[in-house]
Design goal:
Layout (H helix, E strand, L loop, with lengths): L3 H5 L2 E8 L7 H15 L1 E2 L3 H11 L3 E8 L12 E2 L1 E7 L7 E6 L19 H12 L4 E5 L5 E4 L3 E6 L2 E5 L9 H10 L2 E3 L3 H6 L2 E6 L3 E8 L2 E2 L4 H10 L7
Parallel strand pairs: 2-4, 6-7, 6-13, 10-11
Antiparallel strand pairs: 1-3, 3-5, 7-8, 9-10, 9-12, 12-13, 13-14
Amino acid sequence: MIDRGLSYGDGLFETMRVVSGRCRYLELHHARMCHGLRRLDIALPDLSERMLAAVAAADDGVLKFIVTAGDGDGYGRADGAPGRVLTCWRPAPPATEDLRVSLCRTRLAWEPALTGMKHLGRLPQVLARREVAAAASDEGLMADPEGAWVCGTQSNLFLRVDGSWFTPRLDRGGVAGVMRRVLITALAPRLVRVDTAMLQAADRMLMSNAVRGLQWVSELDGRQLKVTPEGRKLSELLAPWRLDG
């Protein structure tokens, strides 16, 4: 038998920043994984213990914690199939304070039953990263099938327009990121559909994920954006590698 995660993308994953055997936002990673496993009907009763053990055993860097639906052939599987845990580790990426962001032609794939989940099917992001590399950018923005801008290839989007913060709704694609949840609490943004005109009107923009934390956008599609000292302080305060937070 071949693992269903490899055969069909039947599973979920969390990517966590680990420092000294700890992960600052571990409870949020655990909660998201639990929510996704319930939606996919994958059984893993010892998830909390296995996630804690994987973090404690990891070196400083990035831990990828994967849960698949185990072995099986054919699209159908029994409800409540027992899950399989796979883990891998890599060094933390180099620090990058500011981002040059380009706009991607590749659209997000949208299936309402999968909205917001960090499932294993990431081919649109794989294709979009090729566009990012070709543009010599740090990150790329991706739109949903109807053209509304939703997220980066590996990050969530926040933008400030006329003094107010906004973040895209995720009902038509995108991942409900752990740092997105942290920032929603910190910035209290409005959840909206973001069109190109709104992107052009933004005077501040940041991207977030659980490995790199908060990264401010200094250039969007050739347009310069300002990064303030207050913004850098927020990045330091909420950084996932801080253990005193």
